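Final report, closing paragraph on structural work. Over the funding period we assembled a curated collection of sequence-structure pairs, and we close with a single example.
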Amino acid sequence: MPNMASNLAHARSLYRAMLRELPQRPLSTPSLVQQRIRNTIATQPQEDARLQMELAEQYIQYAKAQRMYTTLLERYNPGMSMDEEDRVRLTARRVGMDLPDEFKMGEKS
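Its predicted structure, as stored:
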């Protein structure tokens, strides 16, 4: 029995870790992924439990690594999500220059 109780506690711990890696949602409206994970953990056969827990641990490690990769990518490449015009303008400002306003045909200044 102690082994089953520790397996249950470990499964609960893995479930919580998985939920932490998913986008936040209110408890009253769980996403389909959250529902699926919960049903899978609740209905898995006992002999298959060890394999499922190992796969869950791998998934959690992968999700953590992906989150960290995205965070580092955004931190060290801040202009990555900008279009070319904004990137050029910010680069010019970084070295102390302002780009002139572009002339457009038909506009009076």
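Residues 44 and 52 are 8 Å apart (CA to CA). The radius of gyration is 25 Å. We thank the funder for supporting this effort.
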